[in-house]
Amino acid sequence: MTLRVNDLKVYYQTLRGDVHALDGVNFDLADGEIMGLAGESGCGKSTLGKSLIRLDGRMRHVDGTIELDGENVPIADDRAMNRFRYHEISLIPQYAMSALNPTRKIGRMINELLRSRGVRPADVAEELDRRLELVGLDPDVLKRFPIELSGGMKQRVVMVMATLLDPSLLIADEATSALDVSTQRSVVESMVEFRDRGYVKSMIFVTHDISLVYQMADTVMVMYAGRIAEKAPASTIINDPQHPYTKMLIGALPEVGTTTEDTRLEGIPGTPPGLLHPPTGCRFKDRCPIASEECSQTPPLVEIEPGHWAACWKTGR
Amino acid sequence: MWRYMGRKLGIYGITFVVAVTINWMIPRFMPGDPVSSMLNRASVSDPEALERMNTYYNEVFGLDTPLYQQYLSFWSGLLRGDLGISVWLYPEPVTDIILRHIPFTLGLLLPAIILSWIVGNRFGAFAARSKILDNTVLPLGYILTATPYMWLALLLAWALGVVGGFFPTAGGYSFALTPSWSWPFISNLLTHWFLPFLSMFLVALGGWAIGMRNMIIYELEADYSNYLQALGAPRRLIRRYAFRNAMLPQITGLAVQLGTIIAGALLTEIVFNYPGLGTLVLNSLNNNDFFLLQGIFLFVVVGVLIANFIIDIIYVLVDPRTRVQMTGGAS
C-alpha cells in the first residue's frame, strides 16, 4: 500500500470561522495506481491534493493521519514535512504555466533546485535529458527561458522536473485544465508512461474532467462537499456508479453519438452546501432524489464490493 | 541586439534634437530683455552711450540677427562646444561656468541617488522578511517619503549644523581656502557636502524601501515561489529569486527618478547654498542670462539621456525577457 489517508480533516481559517474543506477523508492508494480525483468546484479535491504536500498559511490540519509507504507523513509540521517534499511526494501544480522562475534559464533553475535539495545535478543530468526526450522535448529547452516555451512545453518541463527524483506519490492538480484537447492527450499519455516506467509509483490526478480521467486512471474517487462520495475502478464509476451523486454526475456528461433531440442532458438541481457550517448527516441529501429519514445520519464509507467504496445509506446493503 | 541598440540610439538622437530646440526657444520667448537688464546694472546715464552699448552687445550676443539665423548659429556653436558667452558673468564663456559647477552637482546627486537606491532596496527586502521589521521599517519609510523635502533639509541643517555644529550649513567649501588637492581642502569639501547629501539620501530612501518591500511580497506570493516551496526549496533560494525579480521594476523606477534630477538639485542647492547647477539656474534666471540657462539645461538634458540609455542597456542585461524579445527568440 503506497498511501493511506485516515480520517483527514483540514479546515480553512477565515474571519467568519472554519471552512470544513476536508471533513473526514479516508482512502488508500495502491502501488502503481493512478487515481482520478473528481468533483465540483469547492468540493475539496484541490485541498486534498495540497494537504498531501504543503498546507498553505490558511489551512489547518485538524485531525487524521497520512501514511506513505508505511511511514507517517507529518503534514502539520512544515519543517519535518520538507524531507518528503520532492523526494517522496511531488506536485504538478494547477499553475504549471507560471511555475518556473521567469528570469532564470530552465536548466539553471532545475539545477539550483536540485542542489538545494541535496542532489548533485550532474548525477541526474543524463536522466533529465532522457526524460525530456521521452515527453517529446529537445534537451535544448534547458538553455531557454520559460517565456520561450509554449504552454504545453512548459507543462511537460514541469512534469519532468517534478518527477525527476522518482517520487513515491505524484499529485497532479488540474494539470491539464489549461491545455487544449490534443495537448491534454499527449500530456496524459506521458503521465501514464511515467507510471509504467516506474518514475512515479502512484499518482493522484485532480480534475473536474471525468472523461479525461476515464482515459488514464485506474480508479476514480468522487468527492462531494469535503467528503468522499464514491471510489471505484474507473470503468465501474462510469458504467455502474452506485452513489446517487456519482450517478447524476455521470448522467450530466455528454456522450458521443447522442443528440439533444434524443435525450436532454440532465444537470444536478441545486447547489452544493456551504462548508462554513456544513449540514449534518449526508451532505448530498438536499439535492438527492432518493433521500429519506436515515440520511440525517452521516453515512459511512463502506466497501460494497471489492475495490468499490461508497458513502450512501442506499448502497450499503 | 545591435539593431535594438541602433534603434534606441536613434530615438535618443531625435529626443536630443527636440530638447535642444525647445531649450533654445524657451528663453527667447521669455519676457525681459537680457541686454537692457545688464546695462541697467551698469547704470549708464547717458542715453546716447546706452544706445551704442545696446547695439554693441546685441551684436556680440548675436541678438540682432533673424531668429532662424540665431537658431542655426546656436547649433553650429553647440557642435563646436561653444555655448556662447554669459550675460551675467560677462565675458566668461558659458561652457567654462558650467564645467566649474558641474562637479558639485554630480558629486552630490550621483551618490545620493545611487546609494539611496541600493540601500533602500536592501532595506525593503530586509523588511519583507519579518513582521516586526515590517512594522518598524515601513512606517519609517512612509514618514521619510511623506516629508516635504525642504522641511527635512532645513531640519537637518538646523539640528546638525546650527545647533549641533557638526557640519557647515552653506557653501561648497570655506572661502578661506583655495581649491587644491590637499587634505584640508578635501576634508572641508566633504563636511560641506555631507548635509545636502544626507537630506537627498534620506528623502529618496523611504520610497525605494517601500517599493522594494511591496515588490518582494508580491514576488513571494507568485506561483513560482509557491511551487518551489511545495517542492521543499529552502527559503534562501526563493528569496534570492524574489529579490532579483523584484529588482526589475526598481530599475525602471530609477530611470524615471533620474528625470527629476534637476528639481531635486535645485531645492537642495538653494537650501544649502551649494555651488552646483541648481544655484546657477536660479542665478541665471534672476539675471535673465538665457545663454547660461540654455547651457545648463542642455547639460541636464544630455545627462538624463545618457543615464536613461545606460539603464536601458542594464535592463536588457538583467531581464532575459526583453533580451529574448529583441533577438526574436526561438520557439
TrEMBL record, chain A:
Pfam families: ABC_tran, oligo_HPY. Gene3D superfamilies: P-loop containing nucleotide triphosphate hydrolases. Keywords: ATP-binding, Nucleotide-binding, Transport. One of its GO terms (molecular function) is ATP binding. The keyword Membrane does not apply. InterPro entries: AAA+_ATPase, ABC_transporter-like_ATP-bd, ABC_transporter-like_CS, Oligopep_ABC_C, P-loop_NTPase. Coiled coil: none annotated. It comes from the Bacteria. The keyword Transport applies. Residues 3-250 form the ABC transporter domain. PANTHER family: MALTOSE ABC TRANSPORTER, ATP-BINDING PROTEIN, OLIGOPEPTIDE/DIPEPTIDE ABC TRANSPORTER, ATPASE SUBUNIT. This is Peptide/nickel transport system ATP-binding protein. It comes from Nocardiopsis terrae.
TrEMBL record, chain B:
The chain crosses the membrane at residues 9-26, 97-119, 140-170, 190-210, 246-272, 292-318. Signal peptide: none annotated. The keyword Membrane applies. Its main location: membrane. It is found in: Cell membrane; Membrane. Keywords: Membrane, Transmembrane, Transmembrane helix, Transport. It comes from the Bacteria. This is Peptide/nickel transport system permease protein. It comes from Nocardiopsis terrae. The lineage of its organism: Bacteria, Bacillati, Actinomycetota, Actinomycetes, Streptosporangiales.
